[in-house]
From TrEMBL:
Annotated family: Belongs to the methyltransferase superfamily. METL family.
Enzyme class: transferase
Species classification: Eukaryota, Metazoa, Ecdysozoa, Arthropoda, Hexapoda
SUPFAM superfamilies (alphabetical): S-adenosyl-L-methionine-dependent methyltransferases
Keywords, alphabetical: Methyltransferase, Transferase
Record-linked CDD domains: AdoMet_MTases (cd02440)
Name by which UniProt lists this protein: tRNA N(3)-methylcytidine methyltransferase
Biological role: S-adenosyl-L-methionine-dependent methyltransferase.
InterPro entries given in the database record: METTL2/6/8-like, SAM-dependent_MTases_sf
Residue ranges, annotated region (Disordered): 97-124
Organism: Anopheles stephensi (Indo-Pakistan malaria mosquito)
GO BP term, pick one: methylation
């Protein structure tokens, strides 16, 4: 397995800090500091090391990643993930096209028209273009459309063909202003649909963690290639020592901070500095990147769960 990025951060880089996110919810703690573990939490992590996923099983999980996500969406369809109505609140870039809309904030015509890499008209033209990587069943893109944000063309891709099929069957799916397609973002496959330097915004929200760490660099390099100079990546994913990481039992750990879930899907837990360095090495400028400690509370179900995310924005320099 490739050496972890955090092991390559030199002393000078490790001292550099980036602007922190705003606290978007009451009770949020925004910090660059790693969670301090209790003795009990340290013991849980040590216990995980007693029985690791075998090399054979780890390879099989990688080879069958698409199958496991297809089975996930076969079982759950659109019932598992909640719609992400929070994205425009925490990533204002998703609102950036509103000024070009009509006086009532809406648009009566399809936003743009143009030619993608495959030469077919996709309705996107010279206007702004967004790509959601790991679109699932559309829990980000359809709330955007419901809220009237149709003044940029939306591309949406997912490793799972079944997920893409569910997106295409949604009543709001309309190829005048969106295009969903199956794609392995860790490979060159995405360039069969999208041209170099064609995108303004890429969202990478709870997606990179599902990819093998050996493929983080190729994934981010592909995103850099897809973005226009001045384009931005909007990122959120699981943070180091998140509650979900601490809950894994022996037999689920594949490698450092990388785990197998019961259903065969996988999850990685990121250090904030690791994410910053990953994007810097690919040629991005770090605009903002922080841990966000947040409590997920549902009084009706007596749920009070501490979560840790890494959230950031990364710019492809205008001169790139």
């Amino acid at each position: 397995m490739a050496e972890r990025l955090e092991d390559n951060i030199d002393a000078e880089t490790s001292k550099e800090r980036f602007p922190k996110q705003a606290a978007f919810n009451l009770g949020d703690v925004v910090t660059e500091n790693v969670k301090i573990l209790s003795d009990a939490e340290k013991a849980k992590l040590e216990e995980q090391n007693k029985r690791m996923v075998t090399a054979f099983q780890a390879l099989k999980l990688e080879q069958e990643a698409r199958k496991h996500w297809d089975l996930f969406y076969k079982r759950n369809e659109n019932r598992f993930f909640k719609d992400r109505h929070w994205t425009t609140r925490e990533f204002s870039e998703l609102l950036s096209g509103e000024e070009s809309a009509g006086s009532d904030g809406s648009s009566s015509t399809p936003p743009h028209s143009g030619i993608p890499a495959n030469g077919e008209s996709d309705g996107s033209g010279g206007g702004k273009k967004l790509l959601e990587i790991g679109c699932g069943v559309g829990n980000l893109i359809f709330p955007l459309i419901e809220d009237g944000h149709r003044d940029y063309f939306i591309y949406a891709c997912d490793l799972s063909p079944r997920a893409v099929e569910l997106v295409q069957k949604h009543n709001l799916y309309d190829e005048r202003y969106m295009k969903a397609f199956a794609c392995d973002i860790t490979t060159q496959q995405v360039f069969e649909t999208l041209a170099d330097g064609s995108l303004d915004i890429v969202t990478l929200i709870f997606v990179l963690s599902a990819i093998h760490p050996d493929k983080f660099r190729s994934t981010v390099a592909n995103i850099h290639r897809l973005l226009k100079p001045g384009g931005v990546v909007l990122f959120r994913d699981y943070g180091l020592y998140d509650m979900a990481q601490l809950r894994f039992k022996p037999g689920h750990k594949i490698a450092e901070n990388f785990y197998m879930r019961q259903d065969g899907t996988r999850s990685y837990y990121f250090a904030e500095q690791e994410v910053s360095e990953l994007f810097r090495q690919a040629g991005f400028t770090v605009l903002v990147n922080s841990y966000i400690h947040r409590r997920t509370i549902n009084p009706k179900e007596n749920i009070d769960v501490p979560r840790i995310f890494v959230q950031g924005k990364f710019l492809k320099p205008p001169s790139a």
